[in-house]
Write a structure and sequence with these properties.
Bound molecules: phosphoenolpyruvate, manganese (II) ion
Distance between the termini: 56 Å
Strand order of the largest sheet: 7-8-9-10-11-12-13-14
Structural class: alpha/beta
CATH architecture of the largest domain: Alpha-Beta Barrel
Largest sheet: 8 strands, parallel, barrel
Radius of gyration: 22 Å
CATH superfamily of the largest domain: Aldolase class I
CATH class of the largest domain: Alpha Beta
Strand content: 15-25%
Shape: elongated
Length: 348
């Protein structure tokens, strides 16, 4: 529930509402607005009766929140949340972040080569899967803990924070010890027990949209994480499954400006998994930034033709470097921040 105060409500009237909320055993959350204050009510599991508020002066309107999320909503938290991934800031009005790296960590050499290439081109976070959620059990399942160590070593070597997927609760501790950000994949977006565990404050979370999840379900999944106390959540649109079969998924970029209005949590776009084809990754990465995404995540492999996972959608180092140059060229025209990390010399 949201109690919206009148424009000229006094501090005493605001305090009276806060006390009435507390008297119900619920948590008031004052939300400063431009011209009027609202008080969010947290902690209820059902409908909150309006009776205790009926005779209180200074209230303009009581809005019952029927959506399954509050904490992720701008109604309850108007200001952008800026997520820090190993010091890299990710937020709606920040310099767009580029996360890049292989689909899966295949060897130390492979992930090091990818890390050097993406760092040199200007990526700011390294990705790489150690635990891979594969559709079929015969496909490469990832190197597991060994892969995690290779990824961490590659990140340390080139000086990039790393993000990697966790699939199970028992993987959380060892992954959190080595990774800067925990990825919850599309297939686990509604693994509510896992969401609650990553919600314990500690590491930022990259939450990918389930392939058949509505935006309401997507935000409700993020709400599970925030409710446990961790507000360091980056949302990731990675395409959804529709009747269209020509491409791997359907990338609806309309969600970017829409979610920018609805939530303070930053949203990035993953055109690699959305399109499934490397020739389409660049155009949609550019489009994602043009419509205001807080960043992109793209798969880059030193030798995509021999990749053990998602080769057809992986850029090679040259392709990624070209994409970064194109992004850098268009960004000043579209971004409030107007820049993107310059190229880096990477030592060996
Ligand atoms: C990934 O990013 O490694 C991945 C498996 O993507 P998704 O969960 O979106 O399918
Ligand atoms: Mn992949």
């Amino acid at each position: 529930m949201l109690v919206v105060m009148e424009r000229n409500a006094t501090q005493g009237q605001i305090d009276a509402v806060i006390e009435a909320v507390q008297a119900l055993g619920l948590t008031p959350q004052p939300i400063p607005g431009g011209s009027r204050v609202a008080i969010g009510v947290l902690g209820n599991q059902g409908y909150v009766d309006e009776e205790p508020f009926r005779d209180l002066p200074g209230i303009q309107e009581i809005i019952h929140v029927t959506k399954p999320y509050k904490l992720v909503s701008r109604d309850f938290h108007p200001d952008d949340t800026v997520v820090s991934v190993g010091g890299v800031r990710v937020g709606w009005n920040q310099e767009p972040v580029v996360i890049a790296g292989p689909c899966a960590v295949e060897s130390l050499d492979q992930v090091l080569a990818a890390a050097r290439a993406v760092k040199a081109a200007g990526a700011r976070i390294l990705r790489g899967g150690a635990f891979k959620p594969r559709t079929g059990p015969h496909a490469f399942q990832g190197l597991g803990y060994q892969g995690l160590e290779y990824l961490a070593e590659a990140g340390r070597t080139v000086g990039l924070p790393v993000v990697t997927e966790v699939m199970r609760i028992d993987q959380l501790e060892p992954v959190a010890a080595l990774a800067d950000c925990l990825q919850i994949g599309a297939r686990n977006m509604q693994n509510f027990d896992l969401l609650k565990e990553v919600g314990r404050p500690g590491k930022p979370v990259l939450l990918k949209r389930g392939m058949s999840a509505t935006l309401e379900e997507f935000l409700a999944a993020a709400e599970y994480i925030l409710l446990e106390g961790n507000d360091q959540v980056i949302l990731c649109e990675r395409g959804i499954r529709t009747f269209e079969r020509a491409l791997r998924n359907t990338l609806d970029l309309g969600v970017v400006p829409f979610l920018r209005q609805v939530t303070h949590l930053p949203l990035i776009v993953d055109p690699s998994h959305a399109l499934g084809r490397r020739d389409l990754v660049g155009p949609m990465a550019k489009a994602a930034l043009v419509v205001g995404a807080a960043g992109i995540m793209v798969e880059v492999h030193p030798d995509p033709l021999h990749a053990l996972c998602d080769g057809p959608q992986s850029l090679d180092p040259g392709g990624f470097d070209s994409l970064m140059r194109e992004l850098r060229a268009i960004l000043p025209a579209i971004s409030p921040v107007g820049s993107i990390q310059e190229r880096h010399q990477v030592g060996s």
